TrEMBL record:
NCBIfam families: ilvE_I (TIGR01122), PRK06606.1 (NF005146). Its cofactor is pyridoxal 5'-phosphate. The keyword Hydrolase does not apply. Its EC number is 2.6.1.42. Residues 47-75 are annotated as: Disordered. Pfam families: Aminotran_4 (PF01063). It comes from the Archaea. This is Branched-chain-amino-acid aminotransferase. One of its GO terms (molecular function) is L-valine-2-oxoglutarate transaminase activity. The keyword Amino-acid biosynthesis applies. It comes from Haloarcula marismortui (strain ATCC 43049 / DSM 3752 / JCM 8966 / VKM B-1809) (Halobacterium marismortui).
Length: 382
């Protein structure tokens, strides 16, 4: 197979019709949607261009609708080149005007809650995957911090769909965030306003397209998760992610793609931005909420699909570090990571050192759902 320029040979990663990855060249993947992801660990965010071909694109491959193609790129960070407007507290503002004061409470104390959601370009058109569940979690996350979201779920839904439509995205990543704004800067946020913002941008595979096929090499981090007696870990608070950052960066500094974080008791909790699953003797295990994990929505999707496929799923499992090394299969789930196989932990090969059969089956079921978009209860069509 030849490259887009017809000269440089490209390596085929999977057979036609089986996956969205067409080729790897110079540390980058070219997919059907024209997405280019750098596989270098320093840039997980992926890059995109607007090349298209006539074949079916991946429903996540960032694409712009007709009126957005061919527009001049700005000097913004590459990740946001395709984003014009952001919704802030009831109005759409230009990207450059979406600013907050440096004395914002959340900047100093991590007092924000947020969501990461994907809109997929399904066969039924653009659709937000599990939007209602993400909204529910946002409101639940706000509760312990007394963050009073001034907008109803319907208003946030309307703002989000309008944002996607007017930005012209057929698929994108959506980031709602609610946080304490600028007033007094004592630890108590009592006089600070609650700010609500929604941004969206095109975003490819979090850990790289190749990771979805080949799996990722991970290390067990030396950093432990917060105990849920120290801070609520089941919900999505901005401040929690310093732990994720430390663990993820430690892994990447050491040449791994991602980390696995143990909880205070030394049992397996999750990845810095993913839940984790283990397959052993044909049954599936995933740590329970008492293990200091985020109550992941993709985790719930994976459990539901696996049970429908006839697997026994132990969703309140306690998994020791040693069990990771002897597992038949391991995989991550997450809105960003989707269903990503883990091929080694601390240099110990897992199974055959590639995507295992159960992971493969579940990943296919997951991508079938998001490609077809026909499981109505899981989609909010834009
Ligand atoms: C720490 C952590 N665990 C798990 C997940 C997966 O959650 P979800 O599937 O809801 O994206 C995420 C991603 O948001 C995360 O940040």
């Amino acid at each position: 197979m030849c490259g887009a320029d017809g000269q440089i040979p490209l390596k085929r990663l999977c057979s036609p019709g089986q996956c969205s990855v067409l080729a790897v060249r110079d540390n980058a993947t070219l997919t059907r949607g024209g997405i280019v992801n750098t596989l270098n660990h320093g840039n997980q965010w992926g890059r995109y261009d607007t090349r298209r071909d006539s074949r079916r694109h991946h429903p996540r491959a960032p694409r712009l609708s007709a009126h957005r193609r061919g527009r001049a790129m700005s000097d913004r960070p590459e990740m946001f080149e395709g984003t014009d407007r952001i919704w802030m507290d009831g109005e759409f503002v230009d990207f450059e005007d979406a600013q907050t004061h440096v004395l914002t409470h959340a900047l100093h104390y991590g007092t924000g809650v947020f969501e990461g959601v994907r809109c997929y370009d399904t066969e039924q058109g653009p659709a937000i995957f599990r939007w209602e569940e993400h909204l529910d979690r946002l409101y639940k996350s706000a509760k312990p911090y007394d963050l009073d979201i001034e907008f109803s779920k319907d208003e946030l839904t309307e703002a989000t769909t309008e944002l996607i439509e007017t930005e012209g995205f057929e698929s994108c990543y959506i980031r709602p965030i609610v946080y304490y704004g600028f007033d007094s800067l004592g630890v108590s946020p009592k006089d600070c306003p609650t700010k609500t913002t929604i941004a969206a941008w095109p975003w490819g595979a979090y850990l790289g397209e190749e990771a979805l096929e080949e799996g990722v090499d991970v290390m067990v981090s030396s950093w432990r998760k917060h105990a849920s007696s120290q801070i609520p870990t089941n919900i999505k608070t901005t401040g929690l992610y310093v732990n994720s950052m430390l663990a993820g960066e430690e892994a990447r500094r050491n040449g791994y793609t991602e980390a696995i974080v143990l909880n205070k008791e030394g049992n397996v909790a999750e990845g810095p931005g993913e839940n984790i699953f283990m397959v052993r003797d044909g049954e599936i295990y995933t740590p329970g909420l008492a293990e200091s994990i985020l109550e992941g929505i993709t985790r719930n999707t994976a459990i539901t699909l696996a049970e429908e496929m006839g697997y026994t799923v132990h969703e309140e499992a306690t998994i020791s570090r040693g069990e990771l090394y002897t597992a038949d299969e391991l995989f991550f789930t997450g809105t960003a990571a989707e269903v990503t196989p883990i091929r080694s932990v601390d240099d110990n090969e897992i199974g055959e050192g590639t995507k295992g059969p159960v992971t493969d089956e579940l990943q296919s079921a997951f991508f079938d759902v998001i490609e077809s978009g026909d499981r109505e209860e899981w989609f909010h069509y834009v």
